[in-house]
């Protein structure tokens, strides 16, 4: 019976071929997770890279300038010889702009969050939320341009002593920029408060406003505080608005009408100029960058700690 | 005997109801303030820049004379940079997301990677500029090239891409995976043929939004030392280039009003690109996103 023999031999060949195929399959099954793990490790190396570059170059900076001077000198004037490297004027610039931004963003952001989660109908929400998203998506260079060419001239009409470069105008614009962050994260926190708690309050005769302020707001407080801390972190790290509209005069004061310089703006100023590689000024941007990194890191860790620790369970 | 003093109650209620509607309107006004800001911003930029926006503006090299200046090199440079950023972030971002969602065991190392990614998302963009300056520009000696800037930008937006891809993959229901395993498919076959196609709309939406951030980002490019002014086009990934936000920054920092109008015209082009990208992202989300 030749037919049967032939069919048998074919099936054996098939089996062998199939087995071979399975072998290669097994190999891909083993290699793929390894390749994917390598892509995942890139993000770990990014963190290591950031820490490594900042630390190494900061150490080099501190071999030129002592840590004591960095922390105790109240002047930042690197472009003289020998330069003065006290970090506080830059920190004070950052804090002033961030403070103004927070004064703008917290009331507006919280008001928008309360309105969206407690009062607005679904239709109104569908209109307002995309507007907030658009605000969050506008590049910071656009905000910087707007602060310098529109907000500052308008403010100068109201406050004649306002200089062209100042802390007020970038602070206000930055406040609008971080409002969506605070509004949407706070709204998420308030929407997570279960309706039965609201109904309990309304049933006792409280108005919607009283319910929002005395019941929903305290219940969502951890999420709201975390959103504000994240907003502060974004404001501290924001660069282009303050580089364009804030000026480049580091000073240690409370003035918001005079020209300032933030940590981020200093890094941009030096990177743009011709400070040669290897000079003290070149290394100083890493020391400033490291200080900035520490500020934002503390804020981010604080935000995630708050939202994890003080979470209300229902 | 009256237990309740009606007058007192009604007068008290009036104030509370009044306060309720007053604050409702205050909250609404605060929300509308954002809208007002947006309108003023757009009106201002359009009224300043629209007159300068023409074919010649898109097609000219930068120039010292405002009436001759254009964004041709900047627009080209941005395209070159995105040619690096798109493949690098897609491969690294989606690869990481697949690893974390499909392969990684729940152990300390996985948690560490996850925490690390969310911390990276909070690092200011100017710090990424310092990283790129040290590693790509100096240590690897890439100079202020398209490649150096593209890689720096990729690392900057990577956390956003990873997190959105993870969410998209997590949204694919397990029943689909189990059906695929039941048919005899291996794990990788299942991921490639079942999970990824189902998660693709979500992944694309998140990636496009992240890419639009890379197009508008300026600070890392300034720190890398990307030139503000360049009169020639890059011909390879190792050439110098300038990008659209850098050109806008250059014009903004000049005192003459004409250059500021040019900056506004550049901003219109930048915002138009971003609006198109965001619309595409929303379109993909609404059209192809399946609900399981």
How would you explain this protein's 3D organization?
The complex is a heterodimer of chains A (314) and B (292). With 314 residues, chain A is mostly helical. Chain A has two domains: 2-64; 76-309, MetI-like fold (Orthogonal Bundle). Helices cover 78% and strands 1% of the residues of chain A. Chain A has twelve helices and two strands. A two-stranded antiparallel sheet of chain A has the order 1-2. In chain A, α1 crosses α12, α3 crosses α6 and α3 (88-119) crosses α9. The longest helix of chain A has 63 residues, at 2-64. The mean pLDDT of chain A is 87. With 292 residues, chain B is mostly helical. Chain B folds into two domains: 6-52; 57-288, MetI-like (MetI-like fold), CATH 1.10.3720. Chain B has helices spanning 6-49, 55-59, 72-103, 108-120, 125-139, 146-170, 174-182, 187-216, 219-224, 244-252, 257-288. In chain B, α3 (72-103) runs antiparallel to α8 (187-216) and α8 (187-216) packs antiparallel against α11 (257-288). Classes of the chains: A mainly alpha (314), B mainly alpha (292).
User: How many β-strand runs of chain B?
Assistant: 0
What oligomerization state is this entry in? heterodimer
Q: Name the biggest interface.
A: A-B, 80 and 84 residues
Q: Pick out the low-confidence regions of chain A.
A: none
Shape of chain A: flat
CATH class of the largest domain in chain A: Mainly Alpha
Based on CA atoms alone, the radius of gyration of chain B comes out at 26 Å
Mean pLDDT of chain B: 88
Using only C-alpha atoms, the radius of gyration of chain A works out to: 28 Å
Q: How would you sum up the major sheet of chain A?
A: 2 strands, antiparallel
């Amino acid at each position: 019976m030749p037919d049967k023999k032939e069919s048998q031999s074919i099936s054996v060949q098939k089996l062998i071929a199939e087995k071979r195929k399975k072998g290669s399959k097994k190999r891909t099954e083993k290699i793929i997770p390894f390749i994917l793990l390598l892509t995942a490790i890139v993000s770990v190396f990014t963190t290591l890279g950031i820490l490594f570059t900042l630390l190494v170059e900061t150490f080099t900076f501190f071999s030129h300038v002592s840590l004591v001077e960095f922390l105790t000198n109240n002047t930042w004037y690197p472009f003289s010889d020998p330069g003065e490297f006290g970090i506080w004027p830059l920190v004070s610039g950052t804090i002033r702009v961030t403070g103004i931004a927070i004064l703008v963003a917290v009331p507006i952001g919280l008001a928008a969050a309360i309105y969206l989660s407690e009062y607005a109908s679904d239709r109104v929400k569908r209109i307002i939320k995309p507007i907030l998203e658009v605000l969050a998506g506008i590049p910071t260079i656009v905000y910087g341009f707007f602060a310098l060419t529109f907000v500052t001239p308008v403010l100068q009409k109201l406050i004649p002593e306002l200089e062209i470069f100042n802390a007020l105008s970038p602070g206000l614009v930055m406040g609008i920029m971080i409002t969506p962050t605070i509004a949407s994260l706070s709204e998420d926190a308030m929407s997570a408060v279960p309706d039965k708690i609201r109904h309990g309050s309304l049933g006792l005769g409280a108005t919607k406003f009283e319910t929002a302020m005395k019941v929903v707001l305290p219940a969502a407080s951890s999420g709201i505080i975390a959103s504000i801390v994240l907003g502060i972190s974004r404001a501290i790290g924001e660069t282009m608005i303050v580089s364009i509209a804030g000026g480049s005069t580091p000073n240690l004061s409370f003035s918001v009408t005079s020209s300032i310089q933030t940590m981020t703006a200093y890094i941009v100023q030096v990177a743009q100029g011709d400070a040669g590689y290897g000079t003290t000024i070149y290394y100083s941007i890493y020391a400033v960058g490291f200080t900035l990194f520490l500020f934002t890191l503390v804020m981010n860790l604080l935000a995630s700690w708050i939202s994890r620790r003080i979470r209300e369970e229902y | 005997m009256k237990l309740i003093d009606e007058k007192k109650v009604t007068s008290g209620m009036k104030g509370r109801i009044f306060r309720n509607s007053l604050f409702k309107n205050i909250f609404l006004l605060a929300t509308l303030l954002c809208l007002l800001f947006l309108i003023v911003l757009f009106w201002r930029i359009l009224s300043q820049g629209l007159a300068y926006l023409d074919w010649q503006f898109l097609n000219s090299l930068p120039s010292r004379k405002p009436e001759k200046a254009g964004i041709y090199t900047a627009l080209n440079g941005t395209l070159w940079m995105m040619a690096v950023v798109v493949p690098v972030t897609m491969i690294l971002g989606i690869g990481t997301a697949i690893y974390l969602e499909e392969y990684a065991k729940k152990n300390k190392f996985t948690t560490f990677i996850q925490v690390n990614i969310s911390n990276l998302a909070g690092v200011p963009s100017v710090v990424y500029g310092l990283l790129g300056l040290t590693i790509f520009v100096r240590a690897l000696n890439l100079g202020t090239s398209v490649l150096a800037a593209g890689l720096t930008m990729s690392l900057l937006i990577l956390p956003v891409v990873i997190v959105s891809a993870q969410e998209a993959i997590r949204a694919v229901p397990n029943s689909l995976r189990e059906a695929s395993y039941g048919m005899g498919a291996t794990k990788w076959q299942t991921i490639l043929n079942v999970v990824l196609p189902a998660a693709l709309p979500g992944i694309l939406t998140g990636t496009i939004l992240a890419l639009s951030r890379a197009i508008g980002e300026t600070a890392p490019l300034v720190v890398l030392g990307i030139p503000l002014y360049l009169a020639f086009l890059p011909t390879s990934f190792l050439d110098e280039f300038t990008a659209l936000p850098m050109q806008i920054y250059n014009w903004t920092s000049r005192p003459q009003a004409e250059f500021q109008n040019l900056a506004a015209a550049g901003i219109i082009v930048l915002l138009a690109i971003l609006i198109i990208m965001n619309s595409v992202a929303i379109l993909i989300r609404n059209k192809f996103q399946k609900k399981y």
